[in-house]
Every structure is written in C-alpha cells, then in structure tokens.
Amino acid sequence: MDVDRQLASQVDRPLLVLFHGLEGSSQSHYAQAFADWAVIHDVHFAVPHFRGCSGELNHAPRANHSGDHQEIDWLLQNLAEQHRASGGKGLVATGISLGGNALMRWAAERGDSAAHSADAVASICSPLDLMQSGQAIGQGFNRQVYTRMFLRTMKRKALAKLAQYPGLFDRQALLAARDLYEFDNVFTAPLHGFESTEDYWTRASAKPLMSEIRIPALAVNALNDPFIPASSLPQKADISAMVTLWQPAHGGHVGFPEGSWPGHVCGLPERVGRWLLTAAGLSLKKTEKSDG
Questions:
Q1: I need a labelling partner for 260 at 20 to 30 A (CA). Which of 1, 66, 267, 288 fits?
Q2: Does residue 225 have an active-site annotation?
Q3: Can you give the pLDDT at residue 289?
Q4: Alpha carbon distances (Å) from 254 to 131, 164, 210, 226, 265
C-alpha cells in the first residue's frame, strides 16, 4: 500500500486522511487543495492510494472497488495506531467520489467501533447510490467523454493484472466493454466477490446503511453533479442523527469553484476541513502559508 504523507510542524497535531476517487491519486487537484489546507492549519496529511493507483501495480489478484470498506478499515486502523504512537492527537478522514462511498460504507459497517480509528468522516461528491450513479455516467455526454476517459486507464491496468495472473478474466470481453457497467461485469465484480455489476452496485452502496453511522459524518453532494442524480442523494430518513447532509445547488463533481475567473478550489477544503476538526472536537490552527 502506497501512502503519501505531509507532516505538520508539531507531532501532536491532528491527522487528515484523504481517500481519492476513481483513477485519482495524491496528484489529483482535490488532493493538492487539501494538502494546501493542511499546511495552512498545520495538520498532518496522508493520501493512501487504492491498489494500482499510485503508479505501481499491486501484487494481489484484485484491484479496488467503490465499496471496499475492508481496505478502508485496514488503512485507518494502521494510520491511527501510527499517529497515536508518534504523539499525534485526533484523526479525521474524507473521501472523494468513489473513496467517499467506501469511507461512508466503512463508518456504517463499523458502527460504534469506528470511533477507535476516526473521530469524524466526510464524503465529497460520492455516488452513495451506485446503481443510479452508474447509470448516469453511462448516458449521453458522460458516456461520450468521462466514460471513455476512465476506461482508457482502467483497461490498461486490468490488462496488466491479467499479465500477472493469466486466465483471471476474459480478455476479449474486457476489450469489448464500452461503459463502466460492462467493465465492472467482466473485471471489478468477479474479482471482488460479487456475482455481477448489479450485485456489486447494490451491495457496495453506502446509502442503504447510513442510518448505522455512529461517528460524526458529513455528506457533501452538489445538486448539479453530472455523475450523481439529485434524486439518488440520501435524505433525512436515510441517515442517522450523526450524519449531516450538505447539498448545495451548485458545485458540480468535486468542483465548487470560488472567486473571480478562473477561480480557485480552496473553499471546499476549508469548509470540509473545518467541519471535520470542529465535529471531532479538535483545534484549528492558522499558520503562515509557505511559498512551497
């Protein structure tokens, strides 16, 4: 597991863990924006990479998927233990898109025990209902632009995995896949114990379990997100009293630009980061921003 880290100036500061989105990494624009926020507020920062997303192929006959709460659990347990052992105080986590669904699924699956690893969590622009979001990204403009962009790198990684483990899946069926539904049916679902895409998208979704979350949690979703239909978003009846929903009219998919043209994306980390530390009872600390 590859984890990129950025240290605060003092060991006893909180740790913010960010789980990236589909085909993301520590180089994604949102990870860089959160890293900048962490410097300003003197917070330790870590970006674990889901398997195969750091530029290095993982060794196991599996990859990553949208509901991978077991991976989240292993990572948070280890990061929390390391943080406490070094004198750190407090850990909060946020997940972007795919990473946010997996993080919310983890919080729901662990219930009260989630507090042993994290003090508060947040999902940002996450497909908490994978079925509706999967259908949306496979239609119209999304299918012509974003689906093709994702499949270009996902197929390359899948073929590298097939070279590691010949016979792992049907190569021709993978090459013929024209959307995420077909790709998941050939690759993601069977490699991770699901019977089909429908089984995967249904069982891996966080929304049906969000009433089980027992630590402070924030779910951020813009109503104009092109990947996530507003009708699929959780409502008050779907969540526990520990969950806060923030569903602004605008923001797109992990955008939320602010300021005059061309704008900036610093507002989202500031709001989410501040919410996480406040909900966890941890202190904010403003520092002078470095030139780096």
A1: 288
A2: yes
A3: 53
A4: 20, 34, 21, 11, 9
Q: Which of 36, 68, 129, 225 is catalytic?
A: 225
For residue 287, what pLDDT is reported? Answer: 64
Query: Which amino acid belongs to residue 70?
Result: Q
pTM: 0.94
**Amino acid at site 127:** P
What DSSP string runs through 233-282? Answer: S--GGGS-TTEEEE--S--TTTT--BSSTT-BS-HHHHHHHHHHHHHTT-
Residue 253 falls in the annotated catalytic set: yes
Q: Are 155 and 166 in contact (CB under 8 A)?
A: no
pLDDT in tens, 140-191: 888 888 899 999 999 999 999 999 999 999 999 999 999 999 999 999 999 9
Pairing relation of β-strands 3-6 and 44-48? antiparallel
In the block, tokens 């089984």 appear at 199
Q: Which segments of the chain have a pLDDT < 70?
A: 286-292
Contact of 112 with 33, CB cutoff 8 Å: no
Which CATH fold topology does 3-129+205-279 show? Rossmann fold (3.40.50)
Catalytic residue among 97, 126, 205, 232: 97
Q: Determine whether 66 is an active site residue.
A: no
Strands (E), 105-227: 120-124, 217-220
Please name the amino acid found at residue 128: L
Query: pLDDT tens digits for 118-144?
Result: 999 999 999 999 999 999 999 888 888
Residues shown for the chain? 292
Three-state DSSP at 232 gives helix
Check: CB of residue 86 under 8 Å from CB of residue 245: no
Instruction: State the residue for tokens 């539904």.
Output: 181
Distance between CA atoms of 205 and 198, rounded to whole angstroms?
Answer: 11
Q: Where are the domains of the chain?
A: 3-129+205-279, 133-204
**Peptide bond before residue 248 is cis, with ω within 30 degrees of 0:** no
User: How remote is the C-alpha of 157 from its chain's centroid?
Assistant: 19
